[in-house]
Write a structure and sequence with these properties.
single chain, 1312 residues, 5-stranded mixed β-sheet, 76% helix, extended
Length: 1312
């Protein structure tokens, strides 16, 4: 229950605005007394409580202007009023709420502005949490926290003094107050909302039922189509599977046929080549025979020597004419070759340097490998590795031992794992056995408990049945007496009245009534004819006059619109002119709408095209900017040259720089070698190997070589720098290659395509604009014609109406003339009317007698039927009791058996519980042991695996080094080094050989001169020898090819291949025919499947089952919801009535007790609140009207206007106390402002005693708080005599006129 603890007030009414003026009041439990003279600010405390809890200003405060301390009094332009309240909410949690209001003095008035309100709560951990009015509604939070509604806070708990007598206000205001307190209007509106919602749902149900019927038909048809589709799909799948099998059969046959055809082609080609080569061989052999016959001296040397001899013949004439010049030329050629061999030697020296470095690295790897093997062998105590070099056998043995070591660790880990898993399995098996035993016991216990409960329920049922049988046995005699009495009453009722005679009388009266109805009808017809005959002539004259007027109106309207009708319609219709005009307007409206739609469509299309054009222009600009950016980037990197050309130039430069760098490195090695050679004893030239004449020449050559050697590092650095720069530029240009493809794509495709699209879209836009202009002109013309027709339409409608009325008048004139042709009956209207009244009186008498007879028959029949039903009911009840008495013995036996079975079940359940108790301890023990074994297993297995991983890592390191060593040997780098060295020596030998050739050149020239005379004959013979040699070589080559082809041809069996080919082609043709037939059927099935799927995709069949199910669910849920709404309506209506009745009785009971305890007069026994129920007329809303009455004896009188001022105050006070007692269950707070106003001394004393009694009765309620504000010190003294209050708050004003609150003791009042 909520309660208030203390409150601070500042800047409100007479409470000062400064911090020093803030006053704090603490509220006691259960009674807080506030005493002070009039005008000191006592009521302001109640107003502040109401403001801080509800946010409402006091009545008459001019929207808060008079509630805040006046800025003029404070001599400030702004005054801030603030109220802070500390309270406990309904959850017993402490809260603080703060509300502030700012008053600003303007020129003519005070402007009020509400500031942010804050509610602060303290969590369980002590942290404060605040909610401001920005993120929550403070008024609603306060209502929730205090646990009472706002009307209770306004009218009961913190009721203002000016509104204290509201229970005796006029009826309408009183009704509003009580309706708010009871919240009845809200619930009545909820009932009305439920009723309307139920009506709407009923309409929806009828619509849903129609939809369900239609959807059910669609679902059934959809299911039929789906079945057909499934059947066809199954056939299609089977057909597809058979076609696939045929394809699988065809595939190896086709492959084999292709292979045979390929072999046939190979055989044919080989045979063709052999025949061709045989023909060529015969021709060559013939040529060889002819050449042998023509040659006298066949050359015996090799072909190369023969070619050399022939080559020399072309130069011998020139050598004879200018021997010296040819000698010098040859000598120069030998010099160039010597220079070339020198360069080749330098290149080989560079290569030798690189290979030397690789050899050193190889030696280092061997040393590293040996150290690692020795270290690991020493670590694992392996013998045979510490002595001697590490050979291949040792390496292989090391690899095997490392593998064995790895396997041993792995096997150890597996062994440990298996060992501990066996232990785990043992513990798990024990756990499973114990759990199985426990589960069996629990299941047995549960089954027997269920049987025990079931038997108890059956025993209870049997006991109730036996009690009912015992009770029924005593009723049997009384039932027999009642049955006899009922049968006697039925017999008397059936014999007392003759129903058949009464039915005959009814039939006679019915016949008489029919005759009188016929006579009355004839008389009414006769009177009608007489009335019509007298007025027919007058009506005829009036109709003719109307006809002339209508014809005149039609003529005027035709002359008014004759030209317009001719323009629009082409003629003036004589009949149905309105229909013709309506058709024209409708047609013209359709044309206008069609033209407008087309125009809108063109405008939309124009907007799309313009947007497309803008998009294309933007894309074109982006592409052109992209191309321009790419070109600028290419220009920055390449300059004006082409990328490919630039890459070629750079590659050439980089190749030259690489060669230059290699030459420098080789020269460096070569120069160092030369310097070392020259530093030996007896040095010789490293190139020509000639000795030096003097030592100075050696020194000069060494200095020259050292100076060149000193220049090598600088040149190497420059070559590296140039190579790096060129490489960077080459990489940049390589990156431009994709960019060049992008530029090509942009320039050749994307930008031209965009320009073409842009041109096409621009042309379409121009066409659309022309079309829009034409359609706008056409739309304006049609719209004007439509407007003209619509303006004429009222007159045309009037003309058409006049024409219809004219035709109607002509018909009426003809009919009226026909009526006047009848004859006269010879009687007056009065005579016929008198006869009619007499017959009507006879008919009324007959009707009364007939109704009386019918009612009597109905009542008697109903009485007899009720008696028969009563007799049948008593007979049935008697038979049931007799059957129950017969079943009594069997029920007692069943009960005894069930009691015995329950006792056995209870014993068995107790035994099972005793057996089950020690099993859980065993389960826990085995589970802990299993977990320990699992943990130990994981630790040991992980340790063994770490050792295995360590071995594998070291083995991998050795394998990597060994791989490098093997790669060096496998690539033959050591052999390459030896080859390089040999080539260097070989090149040196060639240089020496060239020097010897230079010396031999003259001897060869002399020899050639001696043979000049026989050279021409000899030249011809040598050429024939050369041709003979070529033909012999060609014949040998042809023989080789023929043998090769014959060898290839010998592997084929041509006859069997041909036979197999024919067989496979026949089988292939049969399978293809069968496949085509099945594929044709498959296409037919596909067409059927597509047809069924199209039907299923139609709107009426698509998701038909889902739609039917959803609509069925909607229908059923709506029906259930409607039934629930009906139940809710009735339940809420009954609840409202019951709640209202209960609360009113409770309130009046409390009022009665308080009035009799408090009021000392004898003129009013008690007072009550009466609520008169009004059903609300046609609105069907229940309305309660309230009034306060006083009882004098048993007579209730309205108290309003009949009581004195004191009685009014006392009655209002008691009613508020009763309302607080009834509605404030979660809030025990009640504030009374000047409760003794207009009360005499006797009633004041009795009120004090009554309040003390209320406090005593509610003292057990922890948070009950009564706050009383008064100026009567005697009243405070009377309350202070009780044990519930020792101190009170005294309110007064200081010398500045600001209110102050001080605490005082009740004893101080006793001393005065």
């Amino acid at each position: 229950m909520s309660c208030i603890e203390k409150m601070s007030i500042q800047g409100v009414r007479s409470f000062g605005p400064d911090d020093k003026d803030r006053q704090v009041i603490q509220f006691f439990t259960p009674l807080t007394l506030i005493l002070g003279p009039n005008g000191t600010g006592k009521t302001t405390i109640i107003e502040s409580l109401k403001y801080v809890t509800t946010g409402d200003m006091p009545p008459g405060s001019q929207r808060g202007g008079a509630f805040v301390h006046d800025p003029k009094v404070a001599r400030e332009t702004e005054v801030k009023g603030q109220v802070r309240l500390q309270f406990c909410d309904v959850m017993k949690k402490q809260c603080i709420v703060q509300r502030s209001i700012l008053a600003t003095q303007k020129a003519k008035q005070v402007q009020i502005r509400q500031l942010e309100g804050v509610i602060t709560r303290r969590r369980a951990d002590g942290e404060k949490v605040s909610i401001s009015s920005k993120c929550a509604e403070v008024d609603r939070e306060m209502v929730t926290s205090l646990g009472v509604s706002k009307p209770i806070l306004d009218s009961v708990i913190f009721c203002h003094q000016e509104d204290a007598n509201w229970p005796l206000s006029e009826g309408k205001a009183l009704k509003v107050k009580f309706d708010d307190i009871f919240a009845s209007t809200r619930y009545v509106k909820a009932l009305e909302c439920i009723r309307k919602l139920r009506l709407d749902q009923s309409t929806n149900i009828r619509l849903y039922q129609t939809d369900v019927k239609y959807l059910r038909q669609n679902k059934e048809k959809s299911g039929e189509i789906q079945d057909n589709l499934s059947e066809t799909q199954a056939k299609f799948a089977a057909s597809k599977e058979s076609v696939q099998k045929l394809k699988e059969k065809l595939q190896p046959i086709e492959a084999r046929v292709d292979k045979i055809i390929t072999k046939h082609n190979d055989i044919y080609q080989l045979q063709t080549k052999i025949e061709k080569l045989s023909s060529e061989k015969k021709q060559m052999e013939k040529t060889v025979t002819e050449l042998r016959d023509s040659i006298e001296n066949e050359f015996q040397g090799s072909k190369d020597e023969l070619m050399q001899v022939l080559a020399d013949f072309s130069t011998k004439v020139q050598e004879r004419r200018d021997t010296l010049r040819q000698f010098e030329s040859r000598l120069e050629m030998l010099n160039r070759e010597a220079e070339k061999f020198g360069k080749e030697k330098s290149k080989r020296l560079v290569e030798q340097g690189k290979l030397d470095q690789e050899a050193e690295r190889h030696a280092g790897n061997i040393q590293k490998r040996d150290q690692m093997i020795l270290k690991l062998a020493e670590q694992y105590d392996w013998e045979g590795f510490s002595s001697g070099h590490v050979t291949d056998d040792k390496i292989e043995r090391f690899r095997e031992m490392m593998a064995e070591k790895f396997e041993s660790y792995s096997e150890e880990a597996k062994r440990i794992k298996i060992q501990y898993e066996e232990k785990e399995a043992e513990f798990q098996q024990k756990l499973d056995e114990i759990r199985e035993t426990k589960t069996k016991l629990e299941q047995s216990e549960k089954m027997k408990s269920d049987m025990l409960k079931k038997n108890k329920i059956e025993i209870r049922s049997i006991t109730q049945e036996l009690s009912r049988v015992d009770a029924s046995a005593g009723k049997l005699e009384s039932l027999e007496r009642d049955l006899k009495r009922a049968e006697h009453d039925l017999t008397e009722a059936e014999q007392g009245v003759d129903i058949d005679a009464m039915k005959a009388e009814v039939t006679k009266l019915q016949k008489e009534k029919t005759e009188l109805d016929s006579i009355l009808s004839q008389l009414s017809s006769e009177m009608s004819r007489m009335h019509m005959q007298s007025s027919a002539q007058a009506q005829l004259d009036m109709l003719k006059k109307d006809k002339v007027g209508k014809e005149d109106h039609i003529r005027k309207l035709k002359s008014k619109h004759e030209d317009s009708l001719s323009y629009l319609l082409g003629h003036i219709p004589t009949e149905n002119i309105r229909g013709v005009m309506d058709q024209y307007i409708a047609k013209q409206s359709q044309e206008v709408n069609r033209t407008r739609t087309a125009l809108q469509r063109d405008n939309v299309e124009l907007s799309k095209k313009e947007a497309q054009r803008k998009m294309l222009m933007d894309q074109l600009k982006v592409k052109e900017d992209e191309l321009k950016g790419h070109e600028e980037r290419v220009f920055e990197v390449c300059g004006s040259q082409n990328v490919d050309d630039g890459l070629g130039v750079l590659q050439t430069k980089m190749g030259e720089l690489q060669d230059q760098k290699g030459s420098l490195i080789g020269a460096s090695h070569l120069y160092k070698k030369y310097v070392s050679l020259l530093g030996r004893n007896d040095p010789a030239c490293p190139l020509c190997h000639r000795a030096f004449d003097e030592e100075e020449e050696v020194q000069e050559l060494v200095q020259e070589l050292e100076s060149k050697l000193n220049l090598v590092p600088a040149k190497l650095e420059k070559a590296d720098r140039d190579l790096t720069d060129n490489q960077k530029k080459y990489d940049s240009m390589q990156q431009l290659k994709p960019l060049r493809a992008t530029m090509s794509k942009l320039h050749e495709k994307e930008i031209p395509d965009l320009k073409t699209k842009l041109k096409a879209v621009t042309e379409q836009i121009e066409q659309l604009r022309t079309s829009i202009a034409d359609k706008e002109e056409d739309l304006e013309t049609k719209h004007n014609d439509e407007s003209m027709a619509k303006q004429m339409h009222p007159d045309i409608a009037m003309m058409d109406r006049y024409q219809k009325e004219l035709r109607e008048l002509e018909r009426k004139i003809a009919a009226q003339a026909g009526k006047m042709a009848g004859g006269d009956t010879g009687r007056t209207i009065q005579q016929v009317n008198n006869e009619k009244e007499e017959v009507q009186m006879q008919l009324d008498t007959v009707n009364r007698n007939l109704d009386h007879k019918r009612q009597k028959i109905s009542e008697q029949s109903e009485h007899i039927q009720q008696l028969k039903a009563s007799v049948n009911e008593l007979r049935g009840e008697k038979l049931q009791i007799e059957r129950d008495l017969q079943q009594r013995i069997k029920l007692e036996e069943n009960k005894a058996e069930l009691v015995s079975a329950n006792q056995a079940y209870e014993r068995e359940i107790q035994e099972a519980r005793q057996q089950r108790q020690p099993l859980q301890a065993q389960i826990d023990r085995y589970r802990e042991e299993k977990e320990k074994v699992t943990t130990l297993k994981e630790e040991k297995v992980e340790g063994a695996m770490d050792e295995a991983r360590n071995v594998e890592s070291r083995r991998k390191d050795v394998r990597i080094v060994q791989k490098e060593i093997v790669r060096y040997i496998h690539e033959g780098r050591d052999k390459a080094l030896e080859d390089c060295r040999e080539k260097v020596h070989s090149l040196q030998a060639k240089v020496d050989q060239l020097q010897g050739q230079q010396e031999e050149l003259n001897a060869n020239i002399n020899k050639i001169r001696k043979d000049l005379t026989t050279q021409q004959v000899r030249e011809r013979e040598l050429q024939d020898n050369m041709q003979l040699r070529r033909r012999q070589e060609e014949i040998a080559g042809v023989n080789t090819q023929v043998d090769k082809f014959k060898e290839q041809l010998g592997g084929f069996d041509v006859t069997n291949l041909e036979r197999e080919k024919r067989k496979l082609l026949t089988e292939q043709e049969n399978l293809i025919k069968e496949k085509h037939v099945k594929e044709g059927r498959q296409h037919g099935l596909e067409d059927e499947i597509r047809k069924y799927k199209r039907e299923l995709q139609e709107d009426q069949y698509k998701d038909a089952a889902v739609k039917y199910r959803d609509m069925m669910i909607t229908l059923r849920t709506t029906e259930l919801a409607n039934q629930d709404l009906d139940k809710y309506y009735k339940a809420m209506d009954r609840a409202i009535m019951s709640y209202h009745r209960q609360k009113m009785n409770e309130i009046n009971k409390i009022i009665r007790g308080l009035w009799r305890c408090t009021y000392r007069g004898n003129d009013i026994e008690t007072i009550e609140i009466r609520s008169d129920e009004d059903d609300g007329g046609t609105s069907k809303r229940r309305i309660y009207n309230y009034r306060v009455v006083m009882l004098k004896g048993e007579i209730p009188l309205d108290m309003r206007g009949r009581c004195s001022a004191g009685q009014k105050v006392l009655a209002s006070l008691i009613i508020r106390l009763a309302l607080a007692e009834t509605f404030c269950l979660n809030c025990g707070i009640l504030a009374l402002d000047e409760p003794t106003t207009n009360l005499d001394r006797e009633n004041i004393e009795s009120l004090a005693y009554a309040l003390v009694e209320i406090i005593r009765n509610r003292s057990g309620q922890r948070n009950f708080q009564l706050v009383i504000i008064t100026h009567d010190e005697d009243f405070v003294e009377l309350l202070g005599r009780s044990e519930y209050c020792e101190e009170f708050w005294k309110v007064k004003k200081d010398q500045f006129g600001c209110s102050k609150i001080e605490k005082a003791r009740i004893e101080a009042l006793h001393m005065r």
